[in-house]
């Protein structure tokens, strides 16, 4: 059978094996091998073939990476915003030059369609890099004044030091970029642990930083397990801040460890985004939006549409049309140009997703999907799935599934729709669909989430913050708001009187 994606995949695989022959760790400006004594094999989830076996990092590698970051900090933090901006503009240019290489590596390790890597992950990362190249020049403390009458005050905004970051596997390149870019733009240095399943593009990203002239040690990557390398990085005494993106369960463990060493903490955790369709909505737009918003990245997206609440008059039509549109989405080889949807990240994740759907069969109705697609059993594929008739408090409505599964529920009054939308522990993202500006505006005010879209679901932009409310975490990625995480402010106070006995010394010396 002719397979149009075959040669592109083979090239990407050969490239990965050659490129990472020196090792899959990036410490002090170069690739090296991990010293844990264990290996991990990156597997292409669309075929089950091995892509690369690499030596995992151990705690000694974390120590070496943190030492490199600590050594690089004084020099990097002393550069001017203009110098860092120049370096990051060069960084964006290197990424643009190497865009196709990055897109192929991302698709290979994740199984995501090449069109998604080419049109979303890689351009988004280049844009983010260019954004921070500009934003760093606006980084400032508040200029202040003479509040006491006897002093001049101002506020300095300073980098924090060595940042330890941990990233998930769903958007490995973008997650690495969202962590690394604001941190280094603000003058910090960083050690990032990618998910061990997907280290390739984080390593390429660090290498591109070096190619752009960013000094050795400013960006380091340690690819190891969460238990060993992740925990050691979070607990490390020379790491001043932990920035974590991943599940809420692991986020809680990370928070405990970070608290024990009183670290600055930024947590981007799970989501279960509601998709709220009022009865005056454009039904066709809502159906298109629900399918695209639920299936993006095979549903492995923390902001994916996962719970559609549809007002009763539109409910039946919405269910029928959404199921039909889901069935038209083309699953296949991520490297083939006509593929819309790739596999899940791994067989384990596919089975986990299937487990949620199988358990739901006893209390809900699987309208479409709910199975491994015929002819694609060799990969970690799962059919786009729509589930109806589930109770609000059921597992499929409440838990993050992280796969191509949308659950749909009816509602009657606007009050009820908004209440149901808010009725999970998560609060990362949501959307409201209506042509009535007052209804939509009410939903944006009352839904508790870090982002609420109106008549769309998913788009992100570098200029705007991304981050959760409630159990989805705290702190922001992207935008100038991310500088609040990666900087600390200092009050500086100058005496203006030039006298030895200050007025306030009365409190110590009395009336002498
Ligand atoms: P995960 O929590 O299992 O793992 C995330 C990272 O933490 C990985 O690098 C992993 O190795 C590491 N880790 C695991 N155990 C650890 C420990 N004990 N100490 C330190 N590090 C540890 O998540 P995942 O399965 O890789 O990714 C999916 C999750 O990520 C979903 O819950 C999703 O919602 C979330 N996510 C959130 C955002 C966001 O912006 N809020 C973005 C993407 C993904």
Automatic annotation (TrEMBL):
Pfam families: Aldedh. It comes from the Bacteria. Keywords: Oxidoreductase. The keyword Transferase does not apply. The keyword Iron-sulfur does not apply. Residues 36-492 form the Aldehyde dehydrogenase domain. GO terms for molecular function: oxidoreductase activity, acting on the aldehyde or oxo group of donors, NAD or NADP as acceptor. The active site is at residue 268. Belongs to the aldehyde dehydrogenase family. This is Gamma-aminobutyraldehyde dehydrogenase. It comes from Streptomyces scabichelini. The lineage of its organism: Bacteria, Bacillati, Actinomycetota, Actinomycetes, Kitasatosporales.
């Amino acid at each position: 059978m002719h397979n149009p994606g075959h040669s592109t995949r083979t090239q990407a695989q050969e490239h990965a094996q050659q490129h990472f022959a020196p090792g899959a760790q990036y410490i002090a400006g170069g690739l090296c091998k991990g010293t844990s004594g264990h290996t991990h094999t990156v597997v292409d989830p669309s075929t089950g073939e091995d892509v690369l076996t690499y030596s995992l990092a151990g705690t000694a590698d974390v120590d070496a990476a943190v030492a490199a970051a600590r050594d690089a900090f004084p020099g990097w933090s002393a550069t001017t915003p203009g110098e860092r901006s120049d370096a990051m503009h060069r960084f964006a240019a290197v990424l643009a030059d190497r865009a196709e290489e990055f897109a192929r590596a991302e698709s290979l390790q994740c199984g995501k369609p090449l069109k998604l890597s080419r049109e979303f992950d890689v351009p988004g990362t280049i844009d983010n890099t260019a954004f921070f190249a500009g934003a760093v020049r606006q980084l400032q403390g508040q200029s202040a004044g003479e509040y006491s009458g006897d002093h001049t005050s101002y506020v300095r905004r300073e980098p924090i030091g060595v940042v330890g970051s941990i990233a998930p596997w769903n958007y490995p390149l973008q997650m690495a970029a969202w962590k690394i870019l604001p941190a280094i733009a603000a003058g910090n240095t960083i050690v990032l642990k990618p998910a061990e399943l997907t280290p390739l593009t984080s390593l390429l990203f660090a290498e591109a930083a070096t190619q752009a002239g960013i000094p050795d040690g400013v960006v380091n990557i340690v690819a190891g397990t969460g238990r060993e390398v992740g925990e050691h990085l979070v607990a490390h005494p020379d790491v001043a801040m932990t920035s974590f993106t991943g599940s809420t369960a692991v986020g809680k463990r990370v928070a405990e460890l970070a608290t024990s060493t009183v670290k600055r903490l930024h947590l981007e955790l799970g989501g279960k985004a509601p998709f709220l369709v009022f009865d005056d909505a454009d039904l066709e737009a809502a159906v298109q939006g629900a399918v695209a918003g639920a299936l993006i990245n095979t549903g492995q997206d923390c902001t994916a549409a996962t719970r559609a609440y549809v007002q009763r008059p539109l409910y039946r039509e919405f269910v029928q049309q959404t199921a039909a549109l889901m069935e038209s989405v083309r699953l296949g080889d991520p490297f083939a140009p006509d593929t819309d949807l790739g596999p899940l990240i791994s067989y384990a994740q596919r089975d986990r997703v299937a487990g949620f759907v199988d358990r739901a069969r006893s209390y809900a109705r699987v309208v479409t999907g709910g199975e491994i697609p015929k002819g694609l059993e060799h990969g970690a594929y799962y059919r786009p799935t729509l589930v109806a008739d589930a109770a609000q408090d059921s597992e499929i409505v409440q838990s993050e599934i992280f796969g191509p599964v949308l659950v749909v529920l009816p509602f009657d009054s606007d009050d009820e729709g908004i209440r149901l939308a808010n009725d999970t522990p998560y609060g990362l993202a949501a959307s409201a669909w209506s042509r009535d500006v007052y209804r939509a505006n009410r939903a944006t005010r009352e839904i508790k989430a870090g982002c609420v879209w109106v008549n769309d679901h998913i788009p992100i932009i570098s200029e705007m913050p991304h981050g959760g409310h409630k159990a989805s975490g705290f702190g922001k990625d992207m935008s100038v708001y991310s500088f609040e995480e990666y900087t600390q402010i200092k009050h500086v106070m100058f005496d203006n009187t030039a006298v030895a006995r200050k007025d306030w010394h009365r409190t110590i010396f009395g009336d002498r």
